[in-house]
Design goal:
This protein is α+β, with helices and mostly antiparallel strands. Helix content is 60%, strand content 8%. The chain has a four-stranded mixed β-sheet, with helices on both faces. It has three domains: 4-119, Conserved hypothetical protein from pyrococcus furiosus pfu- 392566-001, ParB domain, CATH 3.90.1530; 175-250; 260-319. Helix 3 crosses helix 4 (81-89) and helix 9 (181-188) runs parallel beside helix 11 (210-222). The protein has 15 helices and four strands.
Length: 320
């Protein structure tokens, strides 16, 4: 049964199509590569297939599949894997489909990831980024992928750098999750693997701050040769505060926590907003407004009390 929403969606994207009311299901190629290309890491939902089968038995009709012919002439799926599985298991011989008149694999891949928006299932930004990384891994240019998926190129480039550096860290024997994103980005800018590995180890063992790591990486990159770069790293390693940090780590002691002073602005701003919310000439406030203001003031007091405790704990541990 033709579906106007699908036709409008394809037209809006400039994709030419033809409607075929009787495609032979046995002619449609469904291999593992096709499944993975459509679903990425998401498995086919067998429960959904069963639901479709029951609906078919009760006389339900579904939108046409979206298909295209690849360079070898094989008929492949763009949208409708669950429906196709239900048709196949229900022993249907034919189905209707929109035959897309394109073999541009970047266009096909983009349609595969975005077609569910017709049903109101909007793709998240994270899903789009994973899709983009998948395409780049299969040989597409990052600039083309960013344009096709309407992603900011700088964001995609950053995620690609994170992915590549994460793989380098894993190859060097590290767990990428032990480093923050900024640290991964900074370490990743060191091209030589020996220096990359030594800086990563030093950052981990000495628990370098993000700022210190950026300074170290900059000095390493500015070194005139490999020997000078390694000397820079070893000079940093011998700094007394870094030696102490490694000694604390070996004894199972944690480093002093980052200063909670960064929270003061947040807590005080909240208190200030409460004070400015209403005119505190109490005679102008209703009992309900007074109660609401009192509750918010208590919340602010709790936050400030929490800050005081953090400051004292920080002072004790920093002095240890």
């Amino acid at each position: 049964m033709r579906e106007q929403r699908y036709e409008n969606w394809l037209d809006q994207r400039g994709v030419k199509w033809e409607y075929d009311p009787a495609v032979v299901i046995a002619d449609i190629v469904i291999d593992d590569e096709t499944r993975m290309n459509i679903r990425l890491t998401t498995a086919l939902d067998e429960e959904k297939v069963l639901t479709y089968m029951i609906s078919l038995e009760n006389g339900a009709e579904f939108p046409p599949l979206m298909l295209f012919r690849d360079a070898g002439g094989d008929l492949r799926v763009v949208n409708g894997l669950h429906r196709l599985a239900a048709y196949d298991q229900s022993e249907r011989k034919e189905t209707d489909a929109y035959m897309l008149q394109t073999r541009d694999l970047l266009v096909i891949d983009t349609l595969r990831r975005s077609v569910n928006t017709i049903e109101g299932l909007a793709s998240s930004r994270e899903a789009s980024i994973l899709h983009a990384l998948h395409l780049i891994e299969h040989g597409y240019q990052a600039t083309d992928v960013a344009r096709q998926l309407s992603l900011p190129y700088t964001m995609l480039k950053r995620r690609l750098e994170l992915k590549v550096t994460g793989e380098r860290l894993a190859e060097a024997g590290f767990k990428p999750g032990d480093f923050g994103r900024e640290s991964v980005m900074t370490i990743g800018r060191i091209s030589r693997q020996a220096q990359f590995k030594r800086v990563a180890q030093l950052a981990l063992d000495s628990r370098l701050s993000s700022d210190d790591l950026k300074r170290l990486a900059a000095e390493v990159r500015e070194a005139p040769d490999d020997e000078a770069a390694m000397n820079v790293i070893e000079t940093w390693a011998e700094k007394p505060e870094l030696v102490q940090a490694r000694e604390r780590g070996q004894k199972g002691m944690s480093r002093p926590p980052s200063s909670p002073l960064r929270n003061i602005g947040t807590y005080m701003d909240r208190a200030k907003r409460i004070m400015e919310t209403k005119d505190l000439r109490l005679g102008l406030l209703t009992p309900e407004e007074l109660e609401s203001l009192a509750l918010r003031a208590e919340e602010s007091a709790k936050l400030l009390s929490k800050l005081a405790k953090e400051l004292r704990r920080y002072a004790r541990r920093a002095a240890a």
